[in-house]
Write a sequence for this structure.
């Protein structure tokens, strides 16, 4: 049987299926919790205890789909009896009645089955609302799991009436439209009742509507249009022509509802029972503002030739997808600091961020708006998009005026929100970085901070101080700082090692921290332009007459080694299996440098470690250090459990411990021969391992969690070194118990080497 109305397969299947998959993989928990807070009164769900409410709206509402099913079944039975008696019947009507009953039954049964195997608990059971279970995403299984709340069964009994739309679709378009809106509203009504009672979250209701729609649409095609499936698939692959208006409005809607998910999630996270209504209002007003601002921008771009409009919109779509992917997978916010971090990442490091899930998610959120640009029909005169742009801008201004209090309060309380508005966030941050920043790696003449630094102590024999810059090691997983796992057994057991368990980092990324910690400016007077314009600590030491060498096992020194000899570890088949060396290779380098020492000329070797650079933590430790299992071996950290991520990260920290211990062993050997040796270690920044939904590092400093800014430090000095340079070791022991920051490193190293310089500030010297 053919249909009278053309199919809309993209609307029927592609968009609902996209929405369902996205909603399943990235459920809007923040929105769910904020909405549910509206109906939670401190310690209970008031509407759950109202008997008449439950009887009237929960149980009695099921009578509607049951009545429709019974009437349909009765009509089918009557039709069957007429056929047996040889009475006339309508085969077309019989087919439609059979479809109606089958579609409703299939939708209800599928929802019922999914409820038992997806393992999602109800709001009244989650810990936020007094339960004992965290909020969970659907986890599909063939067997029953604890939890029985996804999808929403009561909402499904309403949404199954979508079958009425398809029943009437080819007979009466008006009745079909009425049936569609009735099913949509009735389904949401049924779902909202249970939401008020604490039985479901909002996303459960929406997912149920999408499931029931797809079931009803699929059965409609199987019943009435099997012959058109191949043709429909061919049409789906063909590009569709869109007017500029269609592209503008659909793209603006996509940016608002999809690209800005990070913004909504962050603002909704602060919702409580007391402020849920105001936060939801602010969120809604924000969405309106973003939509009309986006529309205004796109209309302005459409004033240019088609190639310019397409190219600019394509670029913005690609950047918006990148911003959303980073936010969803790693909790990354596209601030200027994060852009600097990306720009400073080499190819090998960049590849470490890619996984199948990363690529699929990026394509998933980017392709729909990109495909809108394939065929554009420009029919309007220039004054039309110009007028539309102005109108959208005026509406935006009105929205800001109406929601000014909520906007200003939100932005004032959380400055990072402005960097969550995609795609303008990444455009603004990139432009700011490229136009205003100085490149720390640029080979430029740097400002000399002291014309004539000198040595107060010239040792009679040989001396070597090793300064180790760690990578991504955080205090929270450092054994000497109280971590329960043995992540640093060698350094913990060495009683001669002095530990600084909590050092406050200069920044949350290498690009910020490394130049800062080797600068006289530090975090206390942070000025990036000044830091990258002045010579750093290694150059100052060299001009003081010290032999300086920088050994690089990472992507670069971020300009801190400018003007001093720099090298990489010699390749070793065992220690550099994939072209990237494990940090224990530094022991060989130190052994060689000990042999090159000169008497009466102090030497300093800077070692820049690979450390625990993520997200490929598993690749930062050899098999010999993999004591914690199972490891996460996927760059997509969201696909691993917290335990697997912690295991891979802890193994990498354990290798840092090994590398430092082996360097210390070489320094001990040298000390036994009379060489004055010492070692200073401090990590550049920490790392988030999923706490509060954050992964990796690079969060804005004003909102950075402790995991990203608290790092460990280590110091060891041989007896000969203490005597040679007159170091008060007991003073260092006392200082280690106090407030220690990256700011101390520059001046402490100068103090340990007894360098007299105008750049030296004794108040920041831990050895003084």
């Amino acid at each position: 049987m053919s249909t009278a109305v053309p199919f809309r397969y993209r609307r029927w299947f592609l968009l609902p299926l996209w929405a369902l998959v996205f909603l399943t993989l990235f459920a809007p928990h923040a929105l769910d919790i904020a909405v549910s807070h509206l109906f939670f009164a401190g310690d209970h769900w008031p509407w759950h205890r109202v008997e008449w409410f439950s009887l009237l709206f929960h149980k009695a509402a099921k009578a509607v789909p049951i009545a429709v099913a019974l009437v349909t079944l009765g009509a089918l039975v009557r039709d069957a009896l007429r056929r047996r008696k040889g009475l006339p019947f309508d085969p077309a009507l019989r087919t439609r009645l059979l479809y109606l009953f089958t579609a409703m039954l299939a939708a209800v049964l599928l929802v019922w089955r999914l409820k038992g195997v997806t393992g999602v608990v109800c709001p009244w059971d989650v810990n936020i609302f007094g339960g004992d279970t965290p909020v969970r995403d659907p986890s599909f299984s063939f067997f029953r799991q604890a939890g029985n709340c996804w999808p929403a069964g009561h909402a499904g009994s309403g949404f199954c009436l979508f079958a009425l739309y398809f029943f009437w679709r080819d007979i009466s378009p008006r009745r079909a439209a009425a049936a569609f809106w009735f099913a949509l509203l009735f389904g949401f009504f049924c779902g909202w009742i249970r939401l008020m009672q604490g039985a479901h979250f909002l996303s459960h209701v929406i997912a149920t509507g999408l499931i029931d729609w797809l079931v009803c649409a699929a059965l409609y095609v199987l019943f009435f249009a099997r012959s058109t499936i191949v043709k429909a698939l061919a049409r789906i692959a063909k590009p569709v022509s869109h007017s500029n208006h269609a592209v503008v409005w659909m793209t603006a809607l996509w940016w608002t509802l999809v690209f800005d998910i990070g913004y909504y999630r962050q603002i909704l996270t602060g919702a409580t029972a007391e402020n849920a209504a105001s936060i939801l209002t602010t969120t809604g007003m924000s969405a309106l503002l973003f939509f009309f601002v986006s529309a205004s921008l796109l209309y302005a771009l459409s004033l240019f030739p088609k190639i310019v409009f397409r190219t600019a919109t394509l670029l913005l779509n690609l950047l918006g997808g990148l911003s959303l992917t980073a936010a969803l997978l790693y909790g990354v916010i596209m601030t200027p600091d994060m852009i600097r971090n990306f720009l400073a990442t080499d190819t090998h490091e960049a590849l470490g961020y890619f996984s199948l899930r990363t690529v699929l998610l990026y394509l998933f959120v980017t392709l729909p708006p990109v495909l809108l640009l394939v065929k554009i029909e420009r029919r309007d005169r220039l004054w039309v998009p110009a007028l539309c742009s102005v109108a959208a801008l005026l509406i935006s201004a009105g929205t800001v005026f109406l929601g000014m209090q909520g906007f200003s309060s939100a932005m004032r309380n959380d400055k990072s929100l402005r960097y969550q508005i995609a795609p303008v966030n990444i455009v603004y941050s990139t432009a700011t970085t490229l136009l205003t920043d100085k490149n720390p790696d640029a080979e430029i003449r740097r400002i000399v901070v002291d014309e004539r630094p000198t040595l107060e102590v010239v040792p009679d024999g040989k001396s070597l101080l090793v300064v180790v810059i760690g990578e991504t090691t955080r205090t929270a997983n450092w054994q000497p700082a109280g971590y329960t796992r043995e992540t640093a057994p060698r350094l913990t057991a060495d009683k001669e090692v002095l530990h600084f368990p909590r050092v406050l980092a200069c920044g949350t990324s290498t690009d910020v921290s490394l130049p800062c910690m080797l600068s006289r400016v530090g975090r206390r007077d942070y000025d990036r332009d000044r830091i990258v314009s002045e010579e750093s600590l290694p150059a100052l030491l060299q001009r003081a007459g010290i032999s300086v060498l920088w050994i690089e096992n990472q992507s670069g020194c971020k300009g801190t080694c400018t003007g001093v000899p720099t090298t990489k570890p010699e390749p070793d088949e065992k220690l550099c299996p994939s072209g990237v060396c494990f940090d224990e290779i530094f022991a060989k380098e130190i052994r060689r440098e000990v042999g090159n020492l000169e008497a009466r000329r102090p030497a300093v070797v800077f070692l820049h470690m690979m450390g625990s650079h993520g997200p490929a933590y598993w690749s930062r430790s050899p098999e010999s250090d993999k004591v914690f299992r199972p490891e996460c071996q996927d760059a997509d950290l969201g696909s691993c459990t917290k335990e697997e991520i912690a295991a891979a990260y802890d193994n990498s920290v354990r290798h840092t411990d090994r590398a430092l211990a082996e360097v210390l062993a070489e320094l001990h050997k040298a000390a036994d021969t009379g060489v004055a040796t010492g070692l200073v270690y401090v990590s550049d920044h920490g790392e988030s391992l999923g706490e509060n939904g954050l992964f990796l590092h690079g969060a804005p400093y004003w909102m950075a969690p402790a995991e990203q800014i608290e790092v460990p430090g280590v110091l060891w000095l041989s007896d000969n070194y203490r005597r040679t340079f007159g170091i008060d070791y007991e003073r260092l022991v006392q200082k280690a118990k106090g407030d220690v920051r990256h700011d101390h490193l520059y001046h402490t190293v100068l103090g340990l080497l007894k360098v007299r310089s105008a750049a030296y500030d004794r108040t920041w010297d831990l050895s003084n």
